[in-house]
Amino acid sequence: MPELDRLSTTFGALADPTRRAILARLALGEASVKDLSAPFDMTQPAISKHLRVLERAGLIEQGRQAQWRPRKLRAEPLRDVADWVSQYRRHWEDSFERLDAYLRELNDTTRNDSKEHGHGDDDDPDSDRPR
Fold first, then answer.
1. What mean pLDDT is reported for the chain?
2. For the residues 23-39, what does the mean pLDDT come to?
3. Could you give the 3-state DSSP secondary structure of residue 95?
4. CATH class as words, domain 3-75
5. Is residue 3 exposed (0-12), middle (13-18) or buried (19+ Cβ within 10 Å)?
6. Of 1, 36, 68, 83, which has the most beta carbons under 10 Å away?
7. 3-class SS at 31?
8. Where are the domains of the chain?
9. CB of 33 within 8 A of CB of 47?
10. Is the pLDDT of residue 8 over 90?
């Protein structure tokens, strides 16, 4: 499956809070369908549908241990999501750096304006008060 299609399938599976909660539970270890459905107020067919979506996305797999068929987390698709998102990390880091520089400049300008207009810390009657 092409990477973008696989990412779309993974993001589609992650879009639902119930499925994210199921993945969070499976991150702790294998679980039966009954265990996975316990926290939710929904029918068994509804839970099974969520599990099928997660299986199609490759996020979980069904094991087999005698009569027990536990589900377990498969992390590879999540790694693909993390890799895709990391491409944009430099962009948001640059944005935060620009915001930080702007806020420092704004703070320096405000401080300088305050001192120029006689509102410096020395003139502040509350300047001795702890902050």
1. 86
2. 94
3. helix
4. mainly alpha
5. exposed
6. 36
7. strand
8. 3-75, 87-117
9. yes
10. yes
